[in-house]
Write the structure tokens for this entry.
Amino acid sequence: MLDKLLPLLQLCDSNFPSGAFSHSFGFETYIYNEKINNEKTFREALCAYIRTQLTYIDGLACRLTYDFLQKQSKDDVWRLNEILAALCLARETREGTRMIGERMWKLCREIYPFEIWNDDKEKRDYIHPAIVFAIVCDHLEIPKDITVLSYLYTSVQTLVQNAVRGIPLGQTDGQKLLVFVQPYLIEAVQTIDALTEEDLGAVTPGLEIAQMQHEQLSVRLFMS
Amino acid sequence: MDEKTSIIGRVRGMNWSGLLQCTAVEKNGRTIVSDCYYEGAFKLARPIYLHPSQPTIYLMHVGGGYVDGDRYKTEISLQKQARMIVTTQSATKIYKTVKTPVQQYTSFFLDDQSVLEFFPDPVIAYEKAKFYQETTVYMKESATFIYGDIITPGWSESGGLFRYDWIRSKLKIYYEGHLKLFDHLYLEPSKGITGIFQMEEYTYIGSLFVVSPLITKDVLKKFENIAAHFPNEAHFGWSTPAVPGLVVRILARETYIIETIFQLIHQLIREECFQEEPIFLRKY
């Protein structure tokens, strides 16, 4: 396990240059409208985000990809990728996710030799970050539950970092939150494990509206 | 359309609670309903021409509501350049569903330059109802698809809101054979759906989807102008999907607020994209 820990730490490092720190995924609209304006309101929102978006979209996508890879079913991975691209109706969030995924995919292919993906000649103009993450972890032989949990953690970590800058919150508050959410993340992994592809993509209308409204915000720190 | 014919062949005889299939064709500048089949609880009245060349069809349910284990299927095909407006005669009511969730599948096949405007009445789920609905669109790049959907907080004897078990509503748009727009609403009140990121303390959800090559930057600019005057009571956002078009999501506390917005957008699209007069789906 020691040999697996280091690549996982690298992948989850907040300095890993995926570009995710430029995106708030709709949170900035709530900050702008002062619905999220302190540690308490942010914490509640973060828990709601874990229970909804992270469980039914990002986390489930990561787990399904991992399952498909275990079954050597690359076609299913690309089919899932197509669903994820079609699912995001807010343009900025869709573009942001595309940029992050693309950057991760390019970088990970530089640092790890994914021979099995070399036969993929089709030009992909979209690859979801959850899919890249699962592909890398599968390659590194990191177990499924740890893969999903780590992916949820990196997503939450980015949001917390962004909240520290955006609301703003103190650095210590941010770190306390990352401890606070741990049981929620573990619970989410268990929930995700019991879901099926039918559950994929259940959207949260309020968050989606916020992601859409972000396009028209007059003052913005983040690209989405 | 061989693929489609074989799908229709397979669908009949599958013991649906209601099945409806119809095809619209364009003849000398006028669309006519050329082929129509229905069985079970579904029925189609004679098309009404609210517009001189575009029929409006009213989907009817003769039973008054959907009950446990019901399965419904609707398939509507628009051939080249056909234009049709589709609505329902009344709200889709789903009664208490103890054993098997009610399932409703609706498919649209839109050939080159066809235009389909689909505005069903709201979905009303009663106490303990479980409802699965899936709408699938197979469209050509030159076709136009407009769809407005409303989900209400349901109805219960006690007057309480959100007493249904769950509603799952999926929309899949295959654009030149590729899935380009997928929407999935899942509402399970017992898990808490009223708060932040979800219903935000509102009670009605409206979703409007437009996929059309005629939604240009110029039309979007005009849309933005009218959106600034949407009713204050509505909480809404809009964006552009991965294919030319427009998506609008609305939260409100009353159906008519959403209907008003739908009508304003529908009217704008008819005027700006087709240079047509607005259509009012007179029902009541």
In short: The first helix of chain B runs from residue 2 to 11. Residues 151 and 207 of chain B are 9 Å apart (CA to CA).
